[in-house]
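Hi support team,

I've been running sequence recovery on a batch of backbones for a student project. Most finish fine, but this one hangs at about 90% for roughly twenty minutes before it completes. I'm not sure whether the input is malformed or the queue is just slow. I've pasted the structure tokens below so you can try to reproduce it. Let me know if you need the job ID as well.

Thanks,
M.K.
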């Protein structure tokens, strides 16, 4: 059986099969029948149901803030994804390398490990996400030189400094892509007195979103529900609205990065000042972020080539050394 790597993200689940590459990339969403509690769909199909379901169907995200919010649902979702990725008929069981955020509790880690074990894995390896993201972004973390990554996912932003194959300093905050969406919803409600859905907010963010005030006027037309009329209303949202809505979130993310940098030993900090910081995770794709982080932290900043797939690609690279990891995971 081929070994597999899993990025069990709050927003997306990706699976890498050794020898094949990334074979699955689907939203971490499950839709269930409210009365029978039976699963109706997972992944892409389930995501399309968010905000559009009749009362008896509920679309849920079983992972929240990078950790498991609903154990059974996460287990069923992962089982279905693994089956889809490797096929049902398998005589031998795979080794699974699965990622977790860096600052979760032992109990939360055990829950992730247990779910992976119960999918029928021969052996489960847990690795911290920022480390795997760095590997996937092409950073050689084995050297005695400091590297810094900021992984802005859906649920959490993980900041880590790595050297000699391990995490030296790190921190994490529950502010990331999904928070951006929520704050766009709140801002639009406040300013335009119109309620929009989170999916619409995500579209706004991806289409015109920026973290910098811009001169040219980018706009998008969206439909929501008038707060007082209760009826559908069309509003024009500008890029500057998004920048304003996300101001506090970006400040919080930058503060976490500043704190991590301040806690970093001087030699490693000087490596970072020279090599720069790498941004990864889907949330880092928002326009202007590289410039903003560079301005605030006064070091070079780059975005990785594939922010949405770095973690799972990192598992692919680490799977090549999984037998070495075998030794250290008794
Ligand atoms: N082009 C884009 N511009 C801005 N945001 C984007 C873009 N593409 C994706 N995103 C956002 O990236 C986030 C998902 O990123 P990612 O897949 O890295 O998260 P995750 O790994 O599932 O979450 P976590 O690591 O927190 O568990 C979502 O909030 C999504 O809206
Ligand atoms: Mg992630």
């Amino acid at each position: 059986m081929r070994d597999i790597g899993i990025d069990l993200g709050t927003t997306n689940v990706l699976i890498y099969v050794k020898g094949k590459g990334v074979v699955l990339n689907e939203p971490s969403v499950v839709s269930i029948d409210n009365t029978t509690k039976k699963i109706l769909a997972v992944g892409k199909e389930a995501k399309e149901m968010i905000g559009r379901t009749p009362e008896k169907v509920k679309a849920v995200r079983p992972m929240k803030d990078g950790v498991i919010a609903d154990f059974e649902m996460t287990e069923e979702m992962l089982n279905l994804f693994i089956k889809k990725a490797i096929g049902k008929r398998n005589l031998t069981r795979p080794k699974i390398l699965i990622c977790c955020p860096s600052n979760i509790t032992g109990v939360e880690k055990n829950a992730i490990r247990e779910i992976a074990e119960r999918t029928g894995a021969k052996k489960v390896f847990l690795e911290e996400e920022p480390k795997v993201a760095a590997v996937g972004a092409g950073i050689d973390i084995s050297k005695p030189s400091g590297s810094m990554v900021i992984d802005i996912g859906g649920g959490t932003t993980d900041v880590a400094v790595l050297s000699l194959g391990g995490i030296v300093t790190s921190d994490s905050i529950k502010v990331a892509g999904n928070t951006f969406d929520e704050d766009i919803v709140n801002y639009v409600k406040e300013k335009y007195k119109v309620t929009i859905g989170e999916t619409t907010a995500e579209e706004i963010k991806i289409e015109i979103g920026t973290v910098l005030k811009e001169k040219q006027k980018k706009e998008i037309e969206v439909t929501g529900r008038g707060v007082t009329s209760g009826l559908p209303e069309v509003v024009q949202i500008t890029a500057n609205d998004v920048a304003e809505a996300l101001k506090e979130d970006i400040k919080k993310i930058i503060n976490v990065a500043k704190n991590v940098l301040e806690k970093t030993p001087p030699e490693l900090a000087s490596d970072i000042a020279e090599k720069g910081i790498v941004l990864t995770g889907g949330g880092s794709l928002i326009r202007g972020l590289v410039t903003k982080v560079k301005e605030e932290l006064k070091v070079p900043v780059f975005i990785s080539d594939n922010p949405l797939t770095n973690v799972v690609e990192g598992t692919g690279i680490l799977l090549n050394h999984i037998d070495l990891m075998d030794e250290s995971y008794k």
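--
Follow-up from support: It reproduced on our side and the slowdown came from queue contention, not your input. The mean pLDDT is 92. No action needed from you.
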